[in-house]
Design a protein that fits this description.
The structure is a homodimer of 205-residue chains.
Chain A (H helix, E strand, L loop, with lengths): L9 H25 L2 H8 L3 H7 L3 H21 L7 H18 L1 H12 L6 H24 L8 H17 L1 H7 L4 H17 L5
Helix pairs in contact in A: 1-2, 1-4, 1-6, 4-7, 5-8, 5-10, 6-8
The structure holds a DNA duplex (30 and 30 nucleotides).
DNA sequence: TTATTTTTTGACCATCTGGTCAATACGATT
DNA sequence: AATCGTATTGACCAGATGGTCAAAAAATAA
């Protein structure tokens, strides 16, 4: 046997996917503690014991979701290209994050919920995956600044500001909804484009 | 009787304050559903039935906290002065919000938790208090722009960006902690000062 | 078909949790 | 000290919730 992993049957693949999809709905809307296996069972169309047949428990479902999310979440930053035009690379990153806020709001809220609670199940992932990536990209940004292609600012806090401003539209949607009349995401695009072009323009120094 | 409200005894004042202080600790750390009356009882040093003697239930404690928070939370925006220097007024607002992230992280997280869950207990407050204030201040900011004192940008999204960038340091502290070496709040001050000066400088247009 | 493995479920359980209540302790007033 | 309103609590309850299990039903292999 070359493969140590058992190959999952089609039924297993389908049902695990169903469960994770339902769980994403439920966890992102109510948080970990606010979510029940019964709610996930209802949303997935499977019985509770059947869910426990595919996952060892509530926590394993949650952890699986968070692990899967990590890759999707980091991908836009991974794709930031050292050899591209600095300002356009960063703006592309901003826009991809903003699109994720629009297209994957459940994922954004799942993540936000976890961090808000002190990242009890994700600190290892952050240390192992996020931290090295951030360090690497901050070094790239610093290089760009030394080349005079970007105004000198703290790269880490630049990233923080990108994360917070873009994810705000998903995580605080309930608030944005109260305050905004029409589709806020389009205005956000324009606003953030202006914001980061002005911040990063090297000549403005 | 001129006063319809019963005057509370000293013991009542003290114990209600104790309970709310403990509840702020618990709710901000675990969210509404993740918090138990037992945990609040332990943290406050009172027995669970005694807590129910002062508050009608878990929800009333939570609602009381949110109501009290609203005033504190909006105060910096209320204080933004139409007659002050536009850029300095906005920067003062940013810095006050950043200080609140440092000094009142529990309040920030309590608020964030509530909004993340769809603001089930706070949408009325947002409609009644936040929305009119935001509309008013957006009008002020627009006036400033028409006077040529600020670069023209969407005032509402300017506020969103201020809220998200400053509260990020409290709400996502678990993440910031993993990525930052020394005290990140001081670097944040410098970064946000640069960010908003560049964004708002009218000559840069 | 028959045998075997995988999938599904109804019934059940232990624990947690918000909340109640009658009884008791406390504190001020007379 | 006796009285009366306030404050406190131990014991308890009903419902929710994560999880178990033996048995039945489906799917698969022989």
């Amino acid at each position: 046997m070359v493969e140590t992993e058992k190959k999952s049957s089609r039924i297993q693949m389908r049902n695990r996917a169903r469960i994770l999809e339902a769980a994403l709905d439920v966890f992102s809307a109510h948080g970990y503690r606010g979510s029940t296996l019964d709610a996930i069972a209802d949303a997935s169309g499977l019985s509770k014991p059947n869910i426990l047949y595919y996952f060892s428990g509530k926590e394993e479902i949650h952890v699986t979701l968070l692990s899967q999310l990590m890759e999707t979440w980091l991908d836009p930053l991974v794709e930031m290209d050292e050899n591209g035009d600095p300002i356009e690379e960063i703006l592309r990153y901003v826009m991809r994050k903003l699109e994720m806020s629009r297209d994957l709001p459940r994922e954004s809220r799942l993540f936000a919920n976890e961090i808000l609670q002190g990242a009890p199940r994700m600190t290892p992932h952050l240390e192992a995956d996020l931290k090295p990536l951030v360090d690497e990209k901050c070094a790239v940004i610093r290089t760009w600044m030394e080349m005079g292609k970007l105004a000198p600012i703290d790269p880490k806090h630049l990233l923080y500001s990108i994360w917070s401003t873009t994810q705000h539209y998903a995580d605080f949607e309930a608030q944005v909804q109260v305050l905004s009349d029409d589709d806020p995401l389009e205005d956000a695009r324009i606003f953030l484009d202006t914001l980061y072009r002005r911040l990063l323009a090297p000549n403005a120094d």
